[in-house]
Amino acid sequence: MNTFYFEGSIEINKIIHLKDTNEIRHAFVSLRKKENEIIEIINGSGDKFQAKIIECSARMFSVLPIEKIATDVEYDDLQVSIAIAVLNKSSKMKLLIEKLTEIGIHRFIPLITERTSFPKAKSESLQASMISALKQCGGTKNVEIFPNTELNKFVLTQEFDEKYFADINGEIFNLDYRKKDIKLLLTIGPEGGFSEREKHLLIQNGFKPIRLNKRILRAETAAIVAASRALK
Question: What is the DSSP letter of 69?
Fold first, then answer.
């Protein structure tokens, strides 16, 4: 069944109008949806609804939510956040947020480090890629995407229960999380890794170095490996 995204609150038996042109075009042009067909609607808050199409045209896409769908696709007891130095191509960042959304992370934090090649790259463009992946993978909760954050400020965060950063000289990362209500932060540096000063800063602020593989991984590969190890 096709899933669509609505930015706003959803209530049973209350018609909603999807105004996103991408959603309208997808429904009308690509899928050729018709009145009274049944679809699924999410809004990124954790709920999924079955809905009946009221109108689907080139300018209007209206649906009536008729039933909430029970799901078990979210990692509510383990919130994994990925912080990673901004990659050198926006296409890599978009692909990365898609994959991390599919895996089920909670938060995505682009970092500015000493070796970041393109510190002015914007994170706002990642939202559309996240939503697209969320619909495709059957997820119901948005990944919270942060604006670019300087590493010097980022290390001061105190809201996580456990904090790690990828380092080829760290201990092997093979953690088995069975405890509940854990907030885990996994941090990935740029190509070439964190500088020695940055490593010292991270360790000073409670981050533990972890090794993800016998080989040196690209930054985007390291992020995917780290997230998939935690979210089994």
Answer: E
Reduce the secondary structure of 33-44 to three states and give it as a string.
Answer: CCCCCEEEEECC
- Domain 3-69 fold is Ribosomal Protein L25; Chain P (2.40.240)
Residue 91 in tokens: 């296409």
Question: What is the third-level CATH fold of 78-230?
Answer: Alpha/beta knot (3.40.1280)
Asked whether 4 and 18 are in contact (CB, 8 A), the reply is yes
Q: How far apart are CA 73 and CA 54, in angstroms?
A: 28
Query: How do residues 137-188 score in pLDDT, each as one tens digit?
Result: 999 999 999 999 999 999 999 999 999 999 999 988 876 665 668 899 999 9
pTM of the model: 0.93
Nearest to 52 by CA among 4, 62, 11, 44: 62
Helix then strand then coil, % of the chain, to nearest 5: 25, 30, 45
